Amino acid sequence: MKIATYNVNGVNGRLPVLLRWLQETQPDIVCLQELKAPQEKFPEQAIIDAGYNAIWHGQKSWNGVAILSKGLEIRESRHVLPGDPEDLHSRYIEAEVGGITVGGLYLPNGNPAPGPKFDYKLAWFDRLTRHAADLLASGKPVVLTGDYNVIPTEKDAYKPERWVEDALFRPETRAAFKNLVDQGWTDALRKLYPDETIYTFWDYFRDAYGRNAGLRIDHFLLSPAIDARLKAAGVDKQVRGWEKTSDHAPVWIELD
Length: 256
Fold this sequence. Notes:
It is built from 6 helices and 14 strands. With 256 residues, it is α+β, with helices and mostly antiparallel strands. The protein has a single domain, classed as Endonuclease/exonuclease/phosphatase (Deoxyribonuclease I, Chain A, 4-Layer Sandwich). It has a 6-stranded mixed sheet with strand order 3-4-2-1-14-13. α3 (116-137) runs parallel beside α4. The termini are close together. 44% of the residues are buried. Residues 4-248 form the Endonuclease/exonuclease/phosphatase domain.
């Protein structure tokens, strides 16, 4: 089973890229972030025509998350992260797919930091951590994946010294990510490639992709009930080089 995550940075504007990638790689389950489309504007028919069914939670102009599957029933369990009834951002969606609990997330960017946006990021992180603990306690196979907007270590950034004041790399952010992982989750890419340079995002400016001046901010966290099934993982870096593409590349894992 192949599971992928992809911050599409606008599902309608990047639809040709998304459809081409789906056709070429044929993942079984896909989590999408940054749909940037209200609920009624999600391109459901195009996704169906590509061979996938979908659930999604949209939001006008911003955010938005979805789960797609190829030949597998998607049973949505929630489309909001618990813990704050006042939070209206479309940043989390969860479903049972193929016997796995899949949580797709788009964690807040948090810039500028310090400030209200950074406070919201850390509060959202705390809610995610509490919900993740409940998911672990269930004992089920769980995959938590998406755009975490976290650079976990210096290894995960080109010239990390340039990011020390950024919300993605501030000590509070990295500590929050470590606290989450330390519950018992496995960082899938680092399990298989502990020492390699791996990026999932390249800015549109200063030829970042051409220089491979990237960041690793899209992650797969696996629960103990599924960790042993991990057999491969990677980044479809070439997609970042396509015309009118997202600034993220798709990231994937393969499970037995």
